[in-house]
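Support request, please re-run this one:
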Amino acid sequence: MPLIRRHRDEIAAFQARRRGRPSLHSLVVEEIRPLTDDAVLVAFTVPDHLREAYRFKHGQHVTVVHRTDAGELRRSYSICAPAGSGGLRVAIRRVPGGAFSGYATEQLRVGDTLAVLTPTGRFTTELDAAAAKHYVAIAGGSGITPILSMTVTILEGEPQSRVTLLYANRSPSSTMFLDELEALRDVHGARLSVCHHWSREAPAGEAGPRRLGPDSVRDLLERCPPVDEWIMCGPLGLVQGIAATLEEHGVDQNTIHQELFTAAGVDDLTNGHDRPLVHSEVTLRMDGEDSTLTLSSRGVSVLAAALPLRPDLPYSCSDGICATCRVKVVEGQVEMDRCSALDRAEIRQGYVLACQAHPISERVLLDFDA
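Re-run finished. Output below.
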């Protein structure tokens, strides 16, 4: 890499990290490995001068950017490597009609270069090497990717803790990381329990298929040792159903960590047509530079309106589930369409998601540096 470009990358990464924002860099694909018929593992080479920028916590994700003649595609993928391993790996499952997932699973090759945002996300746990906890991890399909990183990191970082994993898929052939999980059981023994739930095929020794849901959790609560922390990732129905069951059983909400891998089914917080019509002067502040635009409360989101003016703004999913575009409301008021990526404390502090935000006051100041 030319020295000038390397120096520019280091400066950009340092400035973004200092402000708590991700930065975008080009990384070379070093490995592509099939996981199932429709999913691959993709590993990236992280150059030495960017290793600190790409250091991640277990459960975090990266945004992969693919530029084509038709425009730019951005997709968020959870990191499936354990924290501290030095590896940067994601798993990509092909989605019917998916522009990027189709490219990644069929055309991407070792040696290709993709732009990758540095890791973000708050779906993680605090580690304590002296802790002796019981974690229950729940994964549905592709939800295994952050759960795998969290499981391995916990087992390695808390030698006295144990993990019970409930993992839902259609069948063994559609199960990502099936062999890796078996190998982990061999390494960690009784500290890792893996219970597969295959909806179309019976697990060994059972009469029929097994579905993962609230009944599975009720059974676990009755027969297993007390659970200290719950971590789960999967489709909305699975995660919400299990979260409701835990609430019914009096589980402390502070011990439940959850993430969705799609916004499908997430209810909107508001109906945009019900908002009072306001034409607002919206100022965006990033890297100490202000940009101002006029935006209607019933128009497109702040992010969508701002990108032509500030294409360097951080964003990824545009669906309100990844929080890459988190910004603080310094002045005025905004309203979000939906939000499953911010916790109550962040919302109380004035943070919103630019991809879901609409101004509802005549003046708004949003600070990406805050």
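Residues 3-7+20-117 form a domain with the Elongation Factor Tu (Ef-tu); domain 3 fold (CATH 2.40.30.10). The chain has three domains: 3-7+20-117, 134-260, 272-367.
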